[in-house]
Model the fold of this input.
Amino acid sequence: MTLSLDQAGRQAWQWLEAASAFSETRDSVREGVTRQCATDEHKALLAALTEWMEALGMTVRMDNAANLIGRHASAEPGARTLLIGSHQDTVPNGGKYDGMLGVILPLALVLYLRENDIGLPFHIDVVAFSDEEGTRFSSTLLGSKVLAGTFEPEMLEAADDNGVTLQAALEAFGCDPARIPQDRYRPEEVVAFLEAHIEQGPQLEHASLPVGVVDAITGIERHQLTIHGMAGHAGTVPMALRRDALVGAAEVIRLVDALCKETDDLVGVVGKIENAPNGVNVIPQTTTLSIELRSPRDEVRRRARQRLLEQADAALKSLGLAFDHSQTYEQAAVQCSAWLTATLEEAVRDSGVEPQVMFSGAGHDGLAMVDLCDIGMLFVRCREGVSHHPSEAIEPEDLTAAVEVLVHACRRLASGRPPA
Done:
């Protein structure tokens, strides 16, 4: 008996619904899905995934970073491995699909291949990465860095809000952190890494497309700006004589917004503001801002940074304000492999959909996996582009479309056909 693509898509939907129950937040007061690394919810999810994988005839293991890996084995001797997966962890009160969709879709792919007796000349390892978001330990890309061989032992010293270190949490989870270096894959063993993920934006919905192909993952940088003014009585200091730090902050926010709107392939946000003395009748003396810039082209992002700092310096000086600046984070953009992007484009076309190539404005496990192998990424449409929120939603039929694309991609990889 054969299995249809629609049946595989429906099974993916059922698995996603079941996975969403493994959450700290399961009631009407605490909405959404909250699942962090090395917690009871993580353990319960891995137990369910293990059951589902084993029912598909996969061999299953957990590595020492709490990644779960299920293998759909090839009959070919000396076969290499196609890695497909995403992360199981969520942001607080997140949605059902960010991360988990990329774990479940390859299981639906394996189901389809198995039930239709489709053999491949490579293994498929489905990976549920333990921690991409970094919610608990601020240790972003933990799971993928381990597989890529770029894990830094210092990450084990990071502690959560209760003082539990990552090392202690992994040990309590049944892992042996000292053996993490042995869990890396070798480049010669791997075909490539593929990740399916909800778009987390509105472009596919606006284009009425179920899926899209990602050709780059954005570069990110973050800054802290502390603006220094002079506190004073809000009723007695004349407006022309004020040195109001918050007014300066408002000007910087305007500059960030204007720069990003007028620059192609650039987005940015001022996401956090701290104001002091923060009194209702006191002129603000210091205001601290976080500034984040993102672009799939590092040169665009770096030029924007320089221009923003020059504009902020001129604007704040004109207001009689000084400022301190520090860059707190930088992650270079990552380009998806051209041949793999082209393969996914053809797989989308094979599925009867016009391929749309786009960049990801969010970070993903591919940022780490690129140090191991070529990477490719498939986006799945999400309703109104909402993500990192309980109202995150997808359409069931888009799961079927995504499974079909993965099937065609595997067939193309198996045949060795170059992209058209």
Notes: DSSP finds eleven helices and 13 strands in the chain.
